[in-house]
UniProtKB/TrEMBL annotation:
Its cofactor is Mg(2+). The chain crosses the membrane at residues 20-39, 68-88, 94-112, 124-142, 162-181, 188-205, 211-230, 237-257, 263-286, 320-337, 343-362. This is Undecaprenyl-phosphate alpha-N-acetylglucosaminyltransferase, putative. It is a multi-pass membrane protein. It comes from Deinococcus radiodurans (strain ATCC 13939 / DSM 20539 / JCM 16871 / CCUG 27074 / LMG 4051 / NBRC 15346 / NCIMB 9279 / VKM B-1422 / R1). GO terms for biological process: cell wall macromolecule biosynthetic process; cell wall organization; lipopolysaccharide biosynthetic process. Keywords: Cell membrane, Magnesium, Membrane, Metal-binding, Transferase, Transmembrane, Transmembrane helix. It is found in: Cell membrane.
């Protein structure tokens, strides 16, 4: 028992049998199992309801594909948080309110994406709703503080307050859309959501004031991994707006913390970990502006990084794995920069890679069984 505790201590786990670690583990497993077993039933309902993406020039599917996967991730995420809350209620009232604000904003983003997939909402309307979700976070104390960001000069309050407000809105709206724009190849965003959630979870666990963030990230990571079981190419179901949910939640949780200095410094890590979607969005927007497109976010094309990788590999599976690898390398860099112990980083990277590999293999084997009757 003592040797197990010593090993856990080396991995950054203070007490492997304590309520804190067990609540995180239960949250992750609950989200994983609920999403895993709920997704096939959701797929059947989506087919009956006509919730499907039809084949077109930009999509890879050759037949109608159910697009309600985001609802499954959302359900698994919410159920796991409720279970975690029942096991170990968060004692700090302010943090309780902030967690509720994140969950409410995530709900808003989920249904924004879901409705947009069916009604094709205007970019202006989507932007307004995303800004409102960011404002919801700010009025509940989740706000970036420019003066807490390392290596930047300290500004007077009259300048810092409005600048911090603008930066917070850009942070939430920018990362939400950056993750959404990566959703073009099976498995990419689901894997990205799992990787980033796990990396931020491990990073947040280094701070005593981020217990709520760790639980939220555990729920999101488990739900993304459960969804990925049905989304790795060839997918059985796709997000259908769930990328808004993933991007918003990751952006919002990175603001969850009570220590001003650590909260500011922690923004560097998600920015590095999310470097792939951020760079993708940046190069797409610049490219579209150069071509004279006035509304770069409302003009879809095939200039995204995942499209370019897919053109070279000619394989959705290889494309997803390559982009997972890039995201994981960014995650490793982010953890090391935050000061996470190299042993913890190595174990985390191995666990993440093995988890993705196992789920991808299960999907491939399931696809082989699905094809078998047709080949006989």
């Amino acid at each position: 028992m003592d040797s197990l505790r010593a090993l856990a201590a080396q991995l950054g786990i203070a007490d492997p049998f304590g309520a804190g670690f067990l609540s995180v583990l239960v949250t992750f497993v609950t989200a994983l199992l609920f999403t895993w077993f709920f997704m096939p039933r959701l797929r059947e309902f989506a087919v009956q309801a006509g919730w499907a993406d039809m084949p077109n020039a930009r999509r890879l599917n050759k037949e109608p594909l159910p697009n309600a996967g985001g609802l499954g991730i959302f359900a698994g995420f919410i159920v796991s948080i409720i279970v975690a809350w029942a096991i170990r209620p968060i004692a700090v009232e302010l943090v309780n309110i902030q967690v509720l604000a994140i969950m409410l904003g995530a709900t808003l983003m989920m249904f924004l994406g879901f409705i947009d997939d069916r009604a094709d909402l205007s970019p202006a309307l989507r932007l307004v709703v995303q800004v409102l979700a960011a404002v919801l976070l700010m009025v509940n104390g989740l706000k970036m503080d420019f003066n807490a960001i390392p290596f930047l000069p300290t500004l007077p309050d009259v300048v810092n307050d409005p600048l911090s407000t603008v930066l917070t809105i850009l942070w939430i709206v920018g990362l939400t859309n950056a993750v959404n724009l990566m959703d073009g190849v099976d498995g990419v965003v689901g894997g990205l959501g799992f990787i980033v959630s796990m990396v931020l979870l491990i990073t947040a666990a280094q701070f005593s004031d981020r217990a709520a963030a760790v639980v939220l990230l555990a729920g999101l990571a488990g739900a993304c991994l459960g969804y990925l079981r049905y989304n790795f190419s060839p997918s059985r179901i796709i997000l259908g707006g769930g990328s808004y949910l993933i991007g918003f939640t990751l952006a919002a949780v990175s603001l969850l913390g009570t220590l001003k200095v650590s909260a500011g410094a922690s923004l560097i890590v998600p920015l590095i970990v999310l470097a792939l979607p951020v760079m993708d969005t940046t190069q797409v927007v610049i490219g579209r502006l150069r071509r004279g497109i006035r509304n770069p976010l409302g003009h879809p094309d095939k200039t995204h990084i995942h499209h370019r990788v897919l053109a070279r590999t000619a394989s959705a599976r290889r494309t997803a794995v390559i982009l997972w690898g890039v995201a994981l390398l960014c995650g490793v860099a982010g953890m090391l920069l935050q000061g996470v112990k190299p042993l913890v980083v190595a174990v985390a990277a191995l666990v993440i890679a093995l988890s993705l590999g196992a789920v991808a293999r299960l999907r491939v084997r399931a696809h082989e069984r699905e094809r078998a009757p047709h080949l006989n």
